[in-house]
Amino acid sequence: MKTYLLTLLLAVFVLSPMASFGEYVQITGSVVDALGQPIVGTLISDPYNGFQTTTDVAGKYTLHTDYDTYCASTDSMGNCTQYYDYYYICAGGTRGFQQKCQSDYSPNDNDFEQMNFSLVEMPLRVPGDVTVVGSSPTSIEVSWVNEGGPTTGFFLAIAPGAVSNPVCNGSAINVGTATTYQFSGLSAGAPYSVAVCSTDQIHEISQAVTVSAIAQQPIQLLNKCTFDPTVPWAFLYSSNPPLYKTLTGSASLVLPVDATQITSQIVQLAVDDSAPVISVNNTLVYNNPSFNIASPVALTPPVDLSSLIRGGANTFSGSIYNKTRGAGIFINLDGYYATSGTCGDRAVQNGYLATPTVPPAPTNLVLTPTSTSTMNLSWASGRLSTKTFEVAYAEGTTPPSCSGGTSVGANTSYQLTGLKPSTTYAVSVCALNVSKMASVPITGTQTTMAYYTAINVGGPATGLFQADTDFSGGTKLSSQNSINLSNTTNAAPVAVYQSNRFGNNMAATIPGLVVGAGYGVRLHFAETYFTTINSRLFNVLINGVTVLTDYDIVADAGGANIAVTRTFTATANASGDIVIQFENGAKNNAQINGIEVFAQTVQVAPPPAPTGLTFTSVSSTSLTANWNSGGGSTFGYTIAYAQGTTAPSCSGGTKIGALTSYTLASLKANTPYAVSVCALNATNVASSPLSATQTTFSYYLGINVGGAATGLFSADSDIPKGTIQTVSSQTNIVLTNTSHPAPAAVYRSDRYGAAMTATIPNLTAGASYQVRLHFAELYWSSANSRLFNVSINGIAALTNFDIFATAGGKDIAVAVPFSTTATSSGTIVIQFTTKKDNAQINGIEIFR
Predict the structure, then answer these.
(1) β pairing state of 506-510 and 60-66
(2) What's this model's pTM, rounded to 2 decimal places?
(3) 702 Cβ partners below 8 Å, 6+ apart?
(4) What's the rounded Cα separation, in Å, for the pair 316 and 632?
């Protein structure tokens, strides 16, 4: 591609402010190419008045043209007070250059103007639909299509071999503007490759189109074309008066011949469409200009017109001499043989099988889902000779064949409709040439949107946009202004921008979404009221987050009545909504024209995993798992457990809602259990698991001293002395200051006294056990008010124990663990001895 710069120095000669038409603007200058070399020839034209051109030397010229004078301003009486000279100059338009025009004007002040043009040479196009066929034992015939542009002629080259590469160089054959050529004197039966190239006025050569053929006598006719059953074929029998007969499709016709009326019968066959040469009785009819059939005197009817010859365009006629009275002329039309054009979807040349060039495949296929049921397709044509395209699509990822697809004409875009949501479709697009030969397909896959809704705010339904809905506040406004859609992508229909709502504290609430899922939000604006920037400034919030501050539609769009879109992402809130708010900013009212909310896939991120998995209330048959929420989008939990130490999957576990603890029951004694806990979001998507292992006890006993059975703790037993004390069930017991707390009910009852003994029987003599003692100060409100000692099997365990001081206050649980060994009699003896006030015990656990 060459680029030329044309610099013109204009001198405008004005004789008076009231200059009249017909005076000249003189333009002088030179045209050079990018290397500074002069270009021979005129590249300047004036489409209105016509230049007078004088060429001095190569690339030098002087041009004269008329200019027009018009009035630029008038006084209050309408008299012109200032005149301007207007001139219009075009450069290009010859030698394949794109024409560029520039208009300008100048006051009548005799000043000088300079004009610059950039001339870009148009691309040279390759020949199209190149076809070759052997036309005799020693010749090959070539035909092609002129694709236009700067093409001024063609070069051909030929070389032996089916895969050789002949070159369109200086030794190639220049065939001028012809689009057919026959190579003769070739080796009979030999294969040849033929290259066809375009050329222009400055003798540039295009890329070659190379095809191959064999020099041979055509021996096989194209399969007989059948008649279109919907096309009528009219027969004219010349008599007095003329006799007409019409058949449709394949049929037979007998025309009577009355030898007593005329001696020479003229039979004409007229075809209502542009069908080529036909055959009669399966015999090929050649394209001779006329024919005469002389029938014998003793002709026996019916007369066979098998040698019928084409007499003119779409007309077949001939003369029959029949001297037998009452003889009939029998015509049987069962098909025809084409000598050019097409026969069905097959290309025809000279009545024989041809090898036309398959068109190149389309390029740049783009599949854009536009809703849950629609998808836009666009592509580029592979070459200008492509006459039409076919589109085929199917569910899945396997590209379908273009055969049987939808013909979309010469359009390079198409919309698929009636699709399924969140479904993948494979698409194929093929180019067809004039012979309806298909290119290889260009293919692609895309998935429809999983969710889509669109609202024409303040207006009726249009396209994919439903009528005004899901909106609160604001005043509706409509306009008939013409809207420019070209400055933005993903523009809505024009009608969306011709209606709006305006006001303060407006809100659109899009319901029915998947909690925690991400969506795209596209807002559509067009300013149809104000015409200048800084006239309307407002804020936009999505789910409480500001996304636009002092937004100016005119400034963003580039002017009034121009569509502009802004796209954001948002997550559906806990109610499954996306709330879009429009609030007044620094100036005037907020405004919105249209809203789209969409999701290619509705996916919710897994919630954070729980934390801090611990086990309490462990016994020989049960244990309680406890954990903390990981926060985020957690809506509940699932828990799974299995014997052993391998953490199970949460899949198939027990969903327990928003609880953060869960008791596993009916377990085996002295058995390890692996436990997994997963958080769930609103769509039951699970987090990664939090896992831990706990072994059940081989023995367990829990006593709620002074109280009733609760949880794993049995009712008061094994302590015969001491006074029972209980407090209200409404008393709040703090359980969080100690590990392994008992149920709160254990701490709301106790026994107290100067000396108490708990004897736990039926243990394994000499076996090791764990002892956990539970305390809560229910009476005193200060430290050093109750002091006592505790011994286990005669060994001091606690000395001067102060429940209040140890727990950190009144009504606060504290659990103290110990290790011991059962006596020879299989017991554990726990003694409580007062030091100040009374000893006290709320609960006892023995386990191993």
Answers:
(1) unpaired
(2) 0.43
(3) 619, 711, 712, 713, 714, 742, 843, 844, 845, 846
(4) 86
